[in-house]
Design brief:
This protein is α/β, with parallel strands linked by helices. It has one domain: 3-Layer(bba) Sandwich (Glucose Oxidase, domain 1). 28% of the residues lie in helices and 20% in strands. It has 7 helices and 11 strands. α4 links the parallel β4 and β5. α2 packs across α6 and α4 packs parallel to α5.
């Protein structure tokens, strides 16, 4: 017989966070730059997108809630553990049959200091969420209500949008989507952001001047790497 599980389990690293300096290195940085700095890694799938037409940009550490499909007890339990500037990650195992949060959860998360909410499920109470003002990334809208009975886990490893997320990982989100920077790679990725920004600005300037074909692509077209059939 399966043992009756605890309603909630709290992970040992629920308080792990990057330093203020590490967080500041990602503020205002486009998600595309962060992905480039990780050599193409880190982006959640495109089904997770910003709710509403705003232009919110968020960079902050993850606090993870691992929920069963149709349940949000872990998300609600995170309200005790949120620190100012956290991005609450409400994992729903991709369940689309009901909302993974609504305006009241968003409001309480904002009251607790959350900078944003990210989930791989839909949300509900669109107008209320906009009124609350907490930036949210989700898979869309569903008016169905979730349960709050568990079991669930707080501060443990989750998979959201094809990316593994652990508490303390850096989350960077904007109109383009959501990117996860693993805790152990924060300094390395931050160190590459300056070079990425310089390259992007240089290419932008060339495009504004009329660039049609980058030199690197022209070299491939004119070399034996290209075959005319």
């Amino acid at each position: 017989m399966i043992e009756e599980p605890k309603s909630l389990r709290i992970g040992p690293e629920v308080d792990r966070r990057p330093t203020a300096e590490q967080i500041a290195a990602f503020r205002g940085v486009p998600t595309g730059f962060v992905v480039d700095a990780m050599f193409g890694a880190g982006a959640m799938c495109a089904t997770i997108s910003p709710l509403g037409a705003g232009n919110a940009r968020v960079a902050g550490p993850a606090l993870t809630a691992d929920n069963r499909p149709s349940d949000i007890l872990a998300t609600l339990g995170c309200l005790r553990y949120l620190k100012s500037g956290d991005v609450l990650i409400g994992a729903a195992q991709g369940w689309q049959g009901c909302a993974a949060a609504g305006d009241r959860v968003a409001g309480m998360a904002k009251n607790a200091g959350a900078a944003a909410f990210v989930t791989d499920g839909p949300m509900r109470d669109y107008d209320g969420i906009l009124e609350v003002g907490l930036p949210c990334w989700c898979t869309g809208l569903n008016p169905g209500s979730p349960y709050g009975t568990g079991p669930g886990q707080i501060g443990t490893r989750v998979v959201v949008g094809g990316q593994t997320v652990e508490t303390g990982d850096m989350i960077v989100a904007d109109r383009d989507g959501v990117v996860v920077v693993p805790f152990a790679k924060i300094d390395d990725v931050a160190a590459r952001l300056g070079a990425i920004r310089d390259m992007e600005m240089e290419l932008d300037a060339e495009v504004r001047k009329g660039l049609v074909l980058p030199d690197a692509i022209a070299e491939v077209l004119d070399s034996d790497k290209t075959e005319v059939m």
